[in-house]
Design brief:
alpha/beta
């Protein structure tokens, strides 16, 4: 399958390498396709590097891994190329103040996931992979148990496809929370993940639902 990843930062690179490793054809979209670090990544991993527009057209499945507050700037010009496609939204609408903990640009009555779905009305948006470090998005392994990954989206077939990809990436406990509006629950969970990391000086933690 051709997988297009919009973004070229740590999240995009970690997912790109992991998805390429399980046999998919991966392209990263960026505003700086000539950046040497990305050229080196392409040489080492076989991942293609191109523009956001070319990546949106290339991918049969799309992963949105840009800055969460940049979606309203980036996505409107890509609507036609993304129409009918599954778009996995791994972003969080984080905003950072001076010397303060991050917050969310939307919340309670809206979410970044819902914003993405409104910007891409003809796409099938699924929010997931937004509650863990990029370093553990692929083949997560924890001594204390099995981490849980949540997802939310309006299209059942799209979520089934995303579930299969998550399993191929090593996720064993995947929970479907329902419609895309439930991004209002998982995006604040990212803030809890950040705060736990800041208090405990660790970024290797994950959330798990314990069942009895």
């Amino acid at each position: 399958m051709k997988v297009g990843i919009l973004g070229s930062g740590d999240v995009a690179q970690s997912l790109g390498k992991g998805i390429a490793a399980i046999g998919h054809d991966v392209m990263l979209g960026t505003r700086q396709p000539d950046k040497q670090q990305l050229k080196d990544l392409a040489t080492q991993s076989g991942i293609k590097i191109s523009t956001n527009a070319q990546t949106a057209a290339f991918g049969e499945l799309i992963i949105l891994a840009i800055k969460g507050t940049a979606t309203e700037e980036v996505l409107p010009g890509l609507q036609s190329d993304l129409a009918g496609k599954v778009v996995i939204d791994v972003t969080n609408p984080l905003v950072f103040g001076d010397n303060s903990a991050p917050g969310l640009s939307v919340g309670h009555t809206d979410s970044g996931g819902e914003v993405v779905q409104r910007l891409l009305p003809d796409s099938k948006v699924v929010k997931t992979l937004n509650t863990i470090s990029h370093a553990h998005m692929v083949q997560p392994s924890y001594q204390q148990g099995t981490p849980t990954m949540f997802m939310a989206g309006n299209d059942a077939d799209a979520k089934s496809q995303v579930d299969k990809l998550l399993q191929a990436l090593g996720w064993q406990d995947i929970t479907d929370l329902g419609g895309i509006e439930n991004s209002r629950l998982t995006e604040p969970l990212c803030l809890l993940w950040v705060q736990y990391g800041a208090v405990n000086n660790t970024w290797d933690h994950a959330f798990a639902v314990l069942k009895k």
